[in-house]
Write a structure and sequence with these properties.
259 residues; alpha/beta; Purple Acid Phosphatase, chain A, domain 2; five-stranded mixed beta sheet; six-stranded mixed beta sheet
């Protein structure tokens, strides 16, 4: 048996992103909102650190995009621990190395976060000795994973499986033209919610992020639940079992204003 762990969307550098201890921020005069986001990020890191330790040994780590949050131009950098993308890459490097995985496969995230004219995740992949691409396939113990960051989203709970099911249909068509490997597991990210659908010989996921809730865009424009977490797959002889690990974060709970 070989274990595959899948993570995505850590958005290192954001106030509520995955933040290693060396960059964690504690009360320093920021507004109450930012202090709450920093508290969320500390809780996410504590959960992540403990979960990775429990999942050892990890044979392959799949990092499915948006490792860093970028310069935050649309909000003037007001949601960032640091706007230095090189520093954000250092944060992501520490976080990914925490998995102590024998192999690392990466996919490119969203250009807004990871670089419009350049791909900062290339630098990260080089430092990690990882393979990176826009669309990657990796086979572990006879199980093939189809990995890509982007997927369509829906604000309707019962319609969220449609986009990832479509990915499976397109995968079948590409396979029929002998242009890509046949895969059993389809992994998509980007939408910051966890879900899955499948059939007798396939399963497709939208992976949970490792960024806690609280971004301005998410808080003001979106309605869905943010499912912080990761996935693991235990592969053996062409078969696999999988488990989703979703963090129950106390710091994310909203509080009513009592008058």
């Amino acid at each position: 048996m070989k274990r595959v762990v899948v993570i995505s969307d850590p958005h290192c550098g954001h106030d509520s992103g995955l933040t290693p201890p060396g960059w964690q921020v504690r009360g320093n005069g920021h507004t109450g909102k930012r202090n709450k986001l920093h508290a969320i990020s500390r809780e996410v890191w504590k959960w992540y650190d403990k979960k990775l330790a429990a999942l050892q040994p990890i044979f392959c780590l799949i990092v499915n995009g948006d490792c860093i949050d970028g310069p935050g131009k649309r909000s003037g950098g007001t949601e960032l621990i640091t706007a230095d993308m090189e520093e954000q890459c250092k944060m992501a490097e520490v976080a990914i190395k925490k998995a102590n995985a024998k192999h690392i496969i990466m996919t490119y995230g969203t250009a807004y976060h990871t670089g419009q004219a350049e791909d900062w995740e290339n630098i990260l992949a080089y430092k990690l000795g990882a393979k990176i691409g826009s669309h990657e396939w990796v086979t572990v113990e006879g199980v093939t994973f189809d990995c890509k960051h982007h997927v369509g989203s829906s604000s309707v709970p019962y319609a969220r499986h449609t986009a990832v099911a479509k990915e499976h249909t397109w995968a079948q068509l590409w396979q029929a033209h002998d242009l890509q490997p046949e895969s059993q597991v389809i992994l998509r990210s980007h939408v910051h919610y966890y879900g899955y659908c499948g059939g007798s010989d396939w399963i497709a996921f939208t992976t949970p992020p490792l960024q806690g809730m609280g971004s301005k865009y998410g808080a003001r424009r979106c309605t869905g639940i943010v499912d912080v977490g990761l996935l693991n797959f235990d592969c053996d002889g062409g078969e696999f079992v999988w488990q989703a690990h979703i963090a129950k974060l106390q710091k994310q709970k909203a509080q009513a204003t009592i008058l």
